What does this fold into?
Amino acid sequence: MALNKESNAYTFGFAIALVIVVGTILASLSLGLKDKQEKNGVVKKKMDILKAMLPMEEANKIDRSNAEENFNKYVDLKNALVLDMNGKPVEGNAFDIDIKKDYKNKTLKESDKKFPLFVAQKDGKKLYVIPIIGKGLWGPIWGNLCIGEDMRTVVGASFGHQGETPGLGAEITQQFFIDRWIGETILDENGDFTPFEIVKDGSGPKPQKVDGITGGTITSKGVEEMANRGLSVYATYFKSNMQ
It folds into this structure.
């Protein structure tokens, strides 16, 4: 019996078969690329950590071809720490903690969240790199803040975003905004946490006041919120370990 290619049954059957074939191809491609995607994610994470602790001229020389070598030069993952929400060290692999995934997981209790702290050495000085995650105007924003050997002074930073407006909120990735954080402190003289305020009236730089992005108020406030929320956990650890 010849197929009636004009019938509805043939049309629906052909569509279903096409969906199955395309779905199988896409699933196979996804599985085949999974290892490569995970490897790229690891390299990107290491590059972001390095960008927070290195001067711009050094950071710009790092790409996917040499990120691993440079990361191992400065950061020893054996020294990395995992903190609980009270700033106390707990068991775990710091590099395996996905703060973006944990941030989006609304069912994850605060008491169950873990916070990675990466310890680096540069020019004979110890550095601490803290990853942070938050929300901008149009999507997620993230970053890494590098704290100096005194456990209180910001000596470097890097920020990233997904979908912020070019020329406005997207400017958080630019060096001029990053420079505004350098020299700020996260603890006062007594070792207590001092939250940041991102201002738009030019009243920075002052202690704990950082000039925001012109026209990017919501994104700037998003950076403020993620920095204060993230740093509050680490501030407790630093206070208990300051000499």
